[in-house]
Design a protein that fits this description.
It contains 21 helices and two strands. The protein is an all-alpha fold. Helix 4 packs across helix 14, helix 10 crosses helix 16 and helix 13 packs across helix 16.
Length: about 525
């Protein structure tokens, strides 16, 4: 068997899921283009703004496609390729895609507010506050970690730093020409892609070398501006243009993989447990974003829902982007399936998952005549673009959730003062975590916390649909599965950290476990026959 067969099987399954199951869940969510979306009702040119499907898809996909679908499948392949492949494909269709589209639809039906608002309306204000605090804390940790990761990437690869700055300047020009000068999108897209290529070329010619600390400070300054500027001026056009880097990476890797077609040498199954722990639940936690990710629900019910022009976009942007991320996860898996188990373990130990991915993708690119060093550099640039888009979107979504947390019930107010104040809180706390190194102590909890967010979002969607006496089984089943995964993972995490003396992680894990059980208890009480 070869990697080509794996990839083609994935494409057929994901494509079938989009065209058939995607239509079904659109009907079950009651998609109705005659409804006026929050982007129209609250249009302010800052956060609420009706957006075309290609631009919105680019923004959403670039925001959700962080390093998770690259790192996760490669690490989870230690259990063998078969379980990872099945979870990436079936998980994206029946869990992740439903979760992402559902988060957008729920936000559209609740004035563009977050999943926390659904919890408030159906489970009470206390659950909303707990969820928003947990979600904001998770995002602040992501911002701190990604700031350090991107800064280290810029130091290790100065051409990437120069190219990234070029992308930012290009985005501002794109936003002004598209939204203020009225340039047609196809022409601007072509010019933008040429601008991306020029930025990459300039990056190699004029690499920018700065100390890591300087990059960290500059990045925190950038994400502050990205969170308070009108979304059309920087964040949205940057994500739209950056998405073409991701499309290029996917297309090049796809074509190269088809031509090279490496034989699968990695075992399909290596055992029910290894040095990482038991296959259940850890395979599902480690694989992470390529199948389902709680971060996606925060983006979907945060920045994305406030830009949806008509409800049918939720299927293309929410469900479609998740399936495309599943494709990225499968390509990441294919980057290592051609290795023997010993070679895979050795490469992972010496180079880490991102470098292992870059090496594998560069091998696919070489089948297209692209030199290995250029292929690795492009893959590194794309990965840094993933991290940077997640970084600024996470900051903006954190600001939204703090505004929601401290607003009066039903109020939808974002003032210049609140934007600046809450963004400063997010950036300040993230910077404190980053410069103190404290984020590294908490980061091992991140995979479980992210999947817990997904479980809680699915729980909120189930409560919303059930309370409206609507069909909810398609959300209820993945909710039950993800709750089983995360509760088991939290119990294992608490036990492991107690035994190893890591009391901080043990306490945080116990707190998340208590939060989940509390929300489940409230759900049982409020919704008769919920399960």
């Amino acid at each position: 068997m070869t990697a080509r067969i794996l990839l083609l099987l994935a494409l057929v399954t994901l494509g079938t899921g989009f065209f058939f199951y995607g239509q079904l869940i659109s009907r079950w969510f009651g998609v109705d283009d005659s409804r006026k979306t929050p982007a129209h009702r609250f249009r302010d040119g800052l956060d609420f703004m009706p957006t075309s499907t290609p631009v919105l898809f680019g923004h959403h996909f670039a925001s959700i496609a962080g390093a998770g679908p690259i790192v996760g499948p490669i690490l989870a392949a230690s259990y063998g390729w078969l379980g990872v492949f099945l979870w990436l494909v079936l998980g994206a269709v029946f869990a992740g895609g439903v979760h992402d589209m559902g988060a957008i639809m729920a936000s559209l039906r609740h004035d563009g507010r977050s999943i926390g608002e659904i919890l408030r309306q159906y489970l009470g204000g206390g659950t909303q506050k707990l969820f928003l605090l947990f979600a904001t804390a998770t995002l602040i940790l992501i911002v701190a970690a990604f700031d350090v990761i991107v800064a280290k990437t810029f130091v290790a690869s100065p051409p990437v730093a120069t190219a990234s700055i070029g992308f930012l300047l290009l985005a501002v020009v794109f936003g002004i020409l598209y939204y203020r000068a009225g340039f047609p999108l196809p022409l601007l897209t072509l010019l933008g892609i040429l601008g991306l290529a020029a930025s990459i070329w300039i990056g190699f010619k004029v690499p920018l070398r700065l100390p890591e600390t300087t990059w960290r400070i500059l990045l925190f300054g950038y994400i502050f501006l990205a969170a308070v500027f009108p979304i059309w001026l920087l964040l949205q056009p940057r994500d739209y243009l950056n998405a073409f880097l991701l499309y290029g990476l996917l297309l090049g890797a796809f074509l190269g993989l088809l031509l090279r077609d490496p034989e699968i040498k990695l075992p399909a199954f290596t055992g029910f447990t290894n040095e990482l722990g038991p296959l259940f639940p850890l395979l599902f936690v480690i694989t992470s974003c390529g199948a389902i990710s709680g971060f996606h629900s925060l983006v979907g019910s945060g920045t994305t829902a406030r830009q949806v022009a008509h409800e049918s976009q939720a299927r293309y942007v929410g469900y479609g982007a998740m399936l495309l991320e599943g494709v990225l996860g499968v390509i990441s898996l294919c980057a290592v399936v051609g290795l023997s188990l010993a070679d895979y373990q050795g490469l992972l130990k010496t180079h880490g998952p991102i470098a292992t991915f870059a090496t594998g993708v560069a091998g696919f690119f070489s089948a297209l005549g692209i030199p290995l060093d250029k292929g690795k550099a492009f893959a590194a640039l794309a990965v840094s673009a993933f991290a940077l888009t997640s970084l600024d979107t996470a900051t903006r979504v954190s600001r939204f959730m703090l505004e929601e947390l401290f607003s009066r019930q039903g109020e939808h107010v974002s003032t210049p003062r609140s934007r600046i104040l809450f963004t400063l809180v997010v950036v300040g706390l993230s910077a404190a975590l980053a410069f103190s190194g404290a984020w590294q102590k908490i980061w091992p909890l991140m995979g479980t916390a992210n999947q817990l967010l997904a479980a809680l979002a699915l729980l909120a969607l189930t409560v919303w649909l059930a309370s409206s006496r609507r069909f909810a089984l398609f959300v209820k089943l993945p909710a039950l599965f993800m709750l089983a995964v995360t509760l088991t993972a939290l119990v294992l995490l608490v036990r492991r950290n107690i035994l190893s003396g890591h009391w901080l992680l043990a306490a945080l894990g116990a707190g998340l476990l208590a939060l989940t059980l509390l929300l489940l208890r409230v759900a049982f009480r409020r919704i008769n026959g919920f399960f």
